[in-house]
């Protein structure tokens, strides 16, 4: 019997045209090489635990107890035996103690959650988690009775990673192909892909690379004017702070300019602040802090995937909404419609909700788990800085490679000023992978000024591995660009 031809269906063209370079052809080729037994070093994505970063002990202890509450009584029994015997019970070896503080936090979370991690929660996340997030935001921004504008738990949505929150907002803003969202170039391709999927128009603005990825109002005005000449209605402005892939960290004065621009042009702000812990000595200032009591619509995003936490696979995050606009032709605010969107998905995953709660509610200084928690946090952030510095030093030995601005986020975005005639940064990155096993992402996957070439590398592998592969990269680079 002859096999039938598969049916052919017309599909959503926007989805066909979506691109997401960090999981694109170069990483797919890396997967093929691994299947062939080749070593590959995955620097294409900010996925710390895939490259050997250990989970924070405090987070995982609470997670294990909340997932399996029967362990709480067992841990108390073990602790009692430990104190009686002066060490671990016979046969258990050198086990990690679980403090009474951790046990109480786990019990309290279960009590507030009421139905454990195996049941649906409220669609926007339980109130006690949203209240904890609001307290975290207020503490971060120095809000008190006389300074700043308090965060409102009713404007907070716990999400499956920050990406889900960004998609909610962009899907809601785009009602017509002529609706535009301004995004930085280069940008994290979540934004270009989501705008494409939603059927809107991507409006590029270009921070000044040679000045260290400086952003100012004139850059935004230029992009807005060009879009309006093309008949585009710009409705949203995305700012990634610290930048991905550039690492750029914005100061309060720059944020003030951006807010003024958004207010004067009736544009909502989308502040992607998932790398707020990754500033390596610089000061992070949030958009909410600079905004204060001013009534400009602001959507802020945070995540458990980055910082020092690295809990990418657990998919936790939050979206905070301030000054939500009304939906034209309805009595509904954006907050009410966002809740409708969240309700369709029932609820964010509960393990991610727990970890988001722990990220914003760390052990207090002086508590039993604090010393280890603070030590692990500092070790991870110091290690990231050291690895970034090591790679940046390596660029000095590569012919006509420049890397602008200070180090932020988890990436470096060097400019390749010299490539063989007729080749692109995609060709460079693919050849780099084939030759050295180093998997990076071509700059064109993030967007870049015409005529420039870049790559993005995540500085996440163990330092010893970077020290081993960096000389091979330098050797490859100088041979490739001068061939």
Q: How are the SSEs placed, and which strands pair?
A:
Blueprint: H1 13-17, H2 25-35, E1 41-42, H3 57-67, H4 70-85, H5 100-113, H6 127-141, E2 156-159, H7 161-173, E3 179-184, H8 190-198, E4 201-205, H9 217-229, E5 233-240, H10 252-265, E6 268-272, H11 287-291, E7 298-303, E8 317-322, H12 334-344, H13 350-360, H14 370-395, E9 401-402, E10 411-412, E11 415-416, H15 425-436, E12 438-439, E13 441-442, E14 455-458, H16 463-481
Parallel strand pairs: 1-12, 3-4, 3-5, 5-6, 6-7
Antiparallel strand pairs: 2-8, 7-8, 9-11, 10-14, 13-14
Helix pairs in contact: 2-15, 3-5, 6-13, 7-8, 14-16, 15-16
Can you give a write-up of this model?
With 483 residues, this protein is an alpha/beta fold. It is 42% helix and 12% strand. The protein has a seven-stranded mixed beta sheet, sandwiched between helices. Helix 11 (287-291) links the parallel strand 6 and strand 7. The mean pLDDT is 89.
List keywords for this structure.
16 helices, 7-stranded mixed sheet, 3-stranded antiparallel sheet, Aspartate Aminotransferase, domain 1, 483 residues, alpha/beta
Give the count of structural domains.
2
Task: State the CATH class of the largest domain.
Answer: Alpha Beta
Q: Pairing-aware structural class of the strands and helices?
A: alpha/beta
Task: Give the proportion of residues in helices.
Answer: 40-55%
Write out the strand line-up for the largest beta sheet, numbering strands in chain order: 2-8-7-6-5-3-4
* CATH overall fold name of the largest domain: Aspartate Aminotransferase, domain 2
């Amino acid at each position: 019997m002859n096999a039938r031809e598969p049916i052919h269906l017309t599909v959503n063209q926007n989805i066909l045209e979506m691109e997401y370079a960090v999981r694109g052809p170069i990483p797919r080729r890396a997967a093929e090489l691994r299947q062939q037994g080749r070593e590959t070093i995955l620097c294409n994505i900010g996925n710390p635990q895939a490259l050997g970063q250990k989970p924070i002990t405090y987070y995982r202890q609470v997670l294990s107890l909340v997932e399996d509450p029967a362990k709480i009584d067992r841990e108390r029994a073990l602790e009692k035996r430990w104190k009686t015997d002066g060490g671990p019970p016979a046969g258990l070896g050198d086990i990690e103690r679980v403090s009474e503080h951790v046990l109480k936090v786990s019990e309290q979370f279960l009590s507030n959650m009421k139905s454990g991690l195996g049941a649906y929660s409220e669609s926007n996340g339980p109130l006690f988690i949203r209240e904890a997030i609001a307290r975290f935001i207020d503490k971060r921004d120095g809000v008190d009775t006389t300074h700043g504008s308090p965060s409102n738990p009713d404007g907070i949505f716990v999400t499956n990673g920050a990406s889900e929150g960004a998609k909610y907002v962009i899907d809601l803003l785009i009602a017509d192909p002529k609706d535009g969202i301004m995004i930085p170039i280069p940008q994290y391709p979540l934004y270009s892909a989501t705008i494409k999927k939603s059927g809107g128009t991507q409006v590029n603005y270009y921070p000044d690379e040679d000045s260290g990825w400086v952003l100012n109002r004139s850059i935004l005005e230029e992009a807005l004017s060009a879009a309006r000449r093309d008949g585009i209605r710009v409705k949203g402005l995305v700012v990634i702070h610290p930048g991905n892939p550039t690492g750029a960290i914005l100061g309060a004065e720059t944020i003030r300019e951006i807010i003024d621009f958004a207010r004067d042009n009736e544009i909502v702000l989308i502040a992607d602040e998932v790398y707020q812990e990754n500033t390596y000595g610089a000061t992070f200032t949030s958009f909410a802090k600079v905004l204060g009591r001013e009534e400009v619509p602001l959507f802020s995003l945070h995540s458990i995937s980055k910082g020092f936490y690295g809990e990418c696979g657990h998919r936790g995050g939050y979206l905070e909404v301030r000054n939500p606009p009304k939906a034209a032709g309805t009595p509904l605010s954006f907050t009410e419609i966002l809740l409708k969107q969240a309700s369709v998905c029932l609820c964010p995953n509960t393990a991610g909700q727990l970890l988001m709660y722990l990220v914003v509610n760390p052990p207090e200084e002086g508590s039993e788990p604090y010393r280890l928690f603070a030590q692990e946090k500092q070790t991870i952030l110091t290690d990231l800085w050291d690895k970034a510095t090591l790679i940046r030093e390596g660029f000095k030995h590569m012919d006509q490679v420049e890397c602008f601005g200070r180090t932020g986020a988890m990436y470096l975005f060097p400019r390749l000023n010299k490539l063989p005639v007729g080749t692109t940064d995609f060709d460079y990155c693919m050849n780099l992978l084939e030759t050295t096993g180093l998997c990076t992402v071509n700059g064109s996957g993030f967007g870049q000024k015409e005529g420039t070439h870049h790559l993005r590398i995540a500085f996440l592998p163990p330092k010893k591995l970077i020290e081993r592969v960096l000389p091979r990269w330098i050797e490859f680079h100088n041979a490739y660009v001068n061939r």
